Automatic annotation (TrEMBL):
The keyword Kinase does not apply. Gene3D superfamilies: 2.70.98.10. It comes from the Bacteria. The keyword Calcium applies. The lineage of its organism: Bacteria, Pseudomonadati, Bacteroidota, Flavobacteriia, Flavobacteriales. This is Aldose 1-epimerase. InterPro entries: Gal_mutarotase_sf_dom, GH-type_carb-bd.
Length: 258
């Protein structure tokens, strides 16, 4: 467990997963073991969305990749690269076409192993400042590597009727619950405010969209995404790809509590 501390803020990170963020003792992250989801955060990469109806196949310029829901990154383990009192850097590295065991097999998938047709290096960087928690994602690989990226943090709810603000839009928990597993789409948005017992603000750089998901009333996932997967059929998920340039691509999420 890596613990970051800055003033009245404490962050807990377990093998790269954000399992706690407290401000003045107030916990804003969904706790494992509570109803709703078995994790507290994860990343969706190099694809976002379900693949079952496409027989777990995603077309890339280099051939078919075998992907389960939300990609392959979540099946890899983070390695701690560096840490300090207020920062930590984790990384995952993948070699092109290397088979990775699928944790959903055999209960939820008939694919025992997954693979991607490109290799990559993925870094997750935490920085706890006086203003809040900044999480950066650095994608490295060969030029023109196709990918999508989504960050999937779950926030603990303390009140019965929290409200989500996205610009001029006001979204209720009931509206998100009504959408179900597809997740509520918030397009062209770089900032979400969760008004609960405290106000949690999530600001992003590079993602440009959000989707909101929960199936319970004690947590909600506010997920920055580069592409909303339900805009296309599963067999056309590759329509959501963007392509890596000559340099590493950096995406940022800033979480603050007031």
């Amino acid at each position: 467990m890596v613990i970051l501390q800055n003033g009245n803020q404490t962050v807990k990170i377990d093998k790269g997963e954000l399992v706690g963020y407290q401000v003045d003792g107030h916990e804003v992250i969904h706790q494992k073991g509570s109803p709703g989801w078995r994790s507290s955060d994860t990343e969706m990469f190099p694809i976002i969305g379900p693949t079952s109806e496409a027989h777990f196949q995603v077309q890339t310029p280099r051939d078919i990749a075998i992907m389960d829901q939300h990609g392959i990154l979540r099946e890899l383990e983070y390695e701690l690269e560096t840490s300090s009192a207020v920062s930590a850097v984790f990384k995952k590295e993948y070699k092109e076409r290397s088979p990775v065991r699928n944790s959903k097999f055999p209960e939820k998938s008939n694919k025992q192993f997954l693979y991607y047709t490109y290799g990559f290096l993925f870094k997750k960087q935490f920085l706890l400042t006086e203003a809040g928690l900044e999480i950066s994602f650095v994608v490295s690989g060969e030029r023109d590597m196709p990918f999508m990226l989504g960050y999937h943090p779950a926030f603990k709810l303390h009140n019965e009727n929290p409200t989500i603000l996205a610009g001029a839009r006001k979204i209720s928990l009931k509206e998100v619950l009504a959408i179900g597993s597809r997740a509520y789409k918030v397009a062209d948005c770089e900032k979400i405010v969760l008004k609960d017992e405290k106000e949690v603000t999530v600001e992003t750089e590079g993602f440009q969209n959000f989707m909101l998901w929960t199936e319970v009333e004690n947590m909600i996932c506010l997920e920055p995404i580069t592409f909303y997967p339900y805009d296309v059929e599963q067999k056309n998920l590759n329509d959501g790809f963007q392509f890596l340039g000559n340099d590493d691509q950096v995406f940022r999420v800033k979480i603050s509590v007031s």
